[in-house]
Every structure is written in structure tokens, then in C-alpha cells.
Design a protein that fits this description.
Elements lengths: L8 E7 L6 H11 L1 E8 L13 H14 L3 E4 L5 H11 L2 E4 H12 L3 H16 L24 H4 L2 H31 L4 E6 L5 H9 L16 E6 L5 E6 L9 H6 L1 H4 L7 E7 L5 H14 L6 E7 L16 H4 L14 E6 L8 H13 L2 E8 L4 H10 L1 E8 L2 E9 H7 L2
Parallel strand pairs: 1-2, 1-3, 3-4, 5-7, 5-8, 8-9, 9-10
Antiparallel strand pairs: 6-7, 11-13, 12-13
């Protein structure tokens, strides 16, 4: 059997914001398997509607492509079909945009049938809008970034065939969503508190889930290492149960096609009782990352839930240069802009941990338990021995404080959810 390796693509990153903004695009390119050989930024408020960059910058970019022997460029925005077609014609090279790059990464990392359906649906919807105006790029065959997933053959089919495939994928996805809804309704009928783990991509959500539950979810130092939701149970102090649900990572400029295709997955947080917001404390863009997460939650209509903000990767803090000797001083400065102030990032509670080493995990579990307890009421009642099912439900749903057996029955003292309290307090 012969094995062939795709040649590593050498790409130039192009943006209209700042060089710092291209750092994330570089990570995305590396995750997709490309090597960044140069970066270029043109500081303009509004990109050219026809060529994205100005004519002078295009000449400069063409020279860089020739000198670096780059095989393509990646733009830090979603290009229109006209922009992509004109750039390919002028630069005579492969042109990709941020959306194409992210879709390619999702295609690489999709494992489950649901994930593959969602990725293919997003790719086809993206390509459907580019069936006209892309010119010779439609006939380009071969591997590399932007060609994984459904395959280049899909681009050669007409709109009718692609729309038929999109309709089929939507039906398949609807069946998966219906199954997810049934599972969710079963959880609602058995009200164990659910915590949705959200956060910017690559902040350590999967590592945290593995640390807390032994879930053995893939955890790599890559953007979007995992795409599928995973729900696991944990046992807190007092034999209190809770469910933890991991979600796909957020990112700035998340392609709208992905939001639509992954909406049912992303909305797991919408149906959770609480939110665990994992933050990479070692990131130089920690405030921006947090803001993107909250903007995404707002876009999904997720509001009014108590949020436990978990500042992860504390083990890496010492390796990052800080203006202050105290890495947390910036969060305690009352003169900072209110948007960046820790009191104003919607955190109901905060905790500092390292999911990698386990430091602070006990504090995290205590915070999870405390959030649940604050939404509980104390039930004190004696149950007859014929009501063992009620006692079992209280043990499972609440925190048992006292359980005393006597001739009169079983005396129970426990902190229970409001629904359980209303059910048995009369």
C-alpha cells in the first residue's frame, strides 16, 4: 500500500486590522496544516469591495508571493465571490478566506456523524453562494486547505444538485436534533442540575471535563480540537449529582454558516441551568476572548443564567510577562474600563485553577456546589417506610444532611431543588 502526503502549503496572511489580529489567523493556519511565510496588513476602515486590498498593496503582495514562493494567501475576513475571483486573477495564486479556513479545520476534526453532517452542511451553504463569479477556481482539483469535506466535485455540480444535498443534510440533522431534544427533555424530567462549559477555543474546556469526570475527551493544544458535545456526570459533596456538558469553542468572526449548522450544539448552553465560562488566564488577549464569548452567548439568546468564571492555565501565568508582579492586578484596578472589570463580566463567582495540574479544582467543585445550594431550600420531614422512592429521589436530587431511622419512619433533612421541596414539603 502506498501512502502519499499532501505538501505543506506555504501561505501569506493578509488583514485590514492589525498584525496582532493575525496571530489567531496564524494559529488557525497551523491547525489546518499550513506554514505561514509572511504577514501583510493594510490599515483601512473598509476593505475594497472589488479586491479587498488597494492596488498598491496588491502589487506589494504579489512581490512577496514571488519572493517567498507562497502557494496561497489567507485573508482575515470572509471574502465576497467578486473579491476572491479578482484576487485570484490579479495574484495568480490560491486565495482563501477566514471562513474557508475554519470550515476546513472543522472538516478535519469532525468525528461523529452529527459533526460531519454539520460541517458538510456549512461548507455547501458557503460554496453555494460562490458558484458564480469564482471562475477558474471552481475547476481546481487536488488536496489542501479548503478542499476537504464534501470535496471539490460538489463545486462542479449545479445549484439544483447542491440544494438537493443541502435539503437532505438538513433532514438528517433535524433527526439528530430531535434525538437531542428527547434526551434534553428526559434530563428536565429528572432535574439534576446541568452546567454548560463554554469558552474561547483552546482554553482547556476538554481538559477540564477530563479532569473532573474522566471523560477521556480528546484534548490537544489546537484550535477546535473537539467539535462534539459531551455530557458527563459528577458527584459533589453530600452525594449531590450534577451534569457537565462541553460545547464547541467560540472564536471571533465565527462564520454565520457554522453558527447556523452548529446551532443545536451551541444552544446546549441555552438549556443548561448554569454556565461555566472557562478562560485562558495566560492569554495576552484574555479580555477580548471573554468579550467574544459573551457576544456569542448574546447572539444565541443565552441570558439570565448564573455564570461561574474559571480562570484556567494558572500554571502558565509565571511564564508570561506582566506589567505588574501580580498577574491579577489588572482585574482589581477600579479605574479600568468597566467593560474589562472583573465585576462586570457577568461572573456570579470566579475561581482560579489549572486543569492540567489539578490545582484549584477542589475550589471549583466547591463553587459548583455552592451555586446549586443557593438555589435550594432545606427540607425537614419524616417519611414512612412505604415512601422509600421519595427518599431515594431526595438522595439523588439534593444534598443529604441527616437521615435518621426510627419506628415512626425515616427523618430526612436535606437541601433540595425548589421543585422537590414543593413536591414533598406539604
Amino acid at each position: 500500500m502506498e501512502y502519499t502526503n499532501e505538501p505543506i502549503e506555504k501561505v501569506i496572511l493578509v488583514g485590514t486590522d492589525s498584525y496582532e489580529a493575525l496571530d489567531e489567523l496564524r494559529e488557525l493556519a497551523e491547525t489546518a496544516g499550513a506554514e505561514t511565510v509572511a504577514t501583510m496588513v493594510q490599515h483601512i476602515d473598509t476593505p475594497s469591495v472589488s479586491t479587498y486590498l488597494g492596488s498598491g498593496k496588491l502589487e506589494e503582495l504579489a512581490a512577496v508571493i514571488e519572493s517567498t514562493e507562497a502557494t496561497g494567501i489567507i485573508c482575515d475576513d470572509e471574502l465576497t465571490p467578486i473579491q476572491m475571483s479578482n484576487l485570484e486573477r490579479i495574484l495568480d495564486t490560491k486565495v482563501m478566506d477566514r471562513t474557508m479556513l475554519i470550515l476546513d479545520i472543522f472538516a478535519q476534526h469532525a468525528v461523529t456523524s452529527e459533526g460531519k453532517i454539520q460541517v458538510e452542511l456549512a461548507q455547501l451553504q458557503y460554496r453555494l453562494t460562490r458558484l458564480t463569479g469564482k471562475g477558474r477556481a471552481m475547476s481546481r482539483l487536488g488536496g489542501g486547505i479548503g478542499t476537504r469535506g464534501p470535496g471539490e466535485k460538489k463545486l462542479e455540480q449545479d445549484r439544483r444538485v447542491i440544494r438537493t444535498r443541502v435539503s437532505q443534510l438538513k433532514r438528517e440533522l433535524a433527526e439528530v436534533v430531535n434525538h437531542r431534544d428527547l434526551t434534553r427533555k428526559k434530563r428536565e424530567g429528572n432535574p439534576i442540575p446541568v452546567f454548560a462549559i463554554v469558552g474561547y477555543t483552546n482554553v482547556g474546556k476538554s481538559t477540564l471535563l477530563n479532569r473532573l469526570t474522566g471523560a477521556d475527551v480528546l484534548a490537544e493544544n489546537k484550535l477546535f480540537a473537539t467539535l462534539d458535545t459531551t455530557t458527563r456526570s459528577i458527584l459533589l459533596e453530600g452525594k449531590q449529582q450534577a451534569l457537565l456538558t462541553d460545547t464547541v469553542g467560540f472564536i471571533r468572526k465565527l462564520p454565520h454558516n457554522l453558527v447556523d449548522a452548529f446551532r443545536s450544539t451551541l444552544e446546549e448552553a441555552k438549556y443548561a441551568d448554569y454556565i461555566i465560562h472557562v478562560v485562558d488566564a495566560s492569554s495576552e488577549n484574555v479580555e477580548d476572548d471573554m468579550r467574544v464569548v459573551y457576544e456569542t452567548l448574546d447572539m444565541l439568546g443565552i441570558e439570565g443564567k448564573k455564570i461561574l468564571t474559571v480562570f484556567n492555565k494558572m500554571d502558565r501565568i509565571d511564564s508570561i510577562e506582566k506589567k505588574s508582579s501580580d498577574p491579577w492586578a489588572e482585574f482589581d484596578n477600579e479605574n479600568r474600563d468597566v467593560e474589562l472589570h472583573l465585576r462586570d463580566v457577568r461572573a456570579y463567582m470566579t475561581v482560579k485553577i489549572s486543569a492540567k495540574t489539578g490545582d484549584g479544582v477542589d475550589d471549583l467543585l466547591n463553587s459548583v456546589g455552592e451555586m446549586i445550594r443557593q438555589d435550594r431550600k432545606r427540607l425537614e420531614k419524616t417519611f414512612s417506610y412505604s415512601d422509600m422512592s421519595a427518599v431515594a429521589e431526595i438522595r439523588n436530587m439534593g444534598k443529604l444532611i441527616t437521615e435518621d431511622y426510627s419506628d415512626d419512619g425515616i427523618y430526612i433533612e436535606a437541601e433540595v431543588p425548589f421543585r422537590i421541596y414543593s413536591k414533598y414539603s406539604k
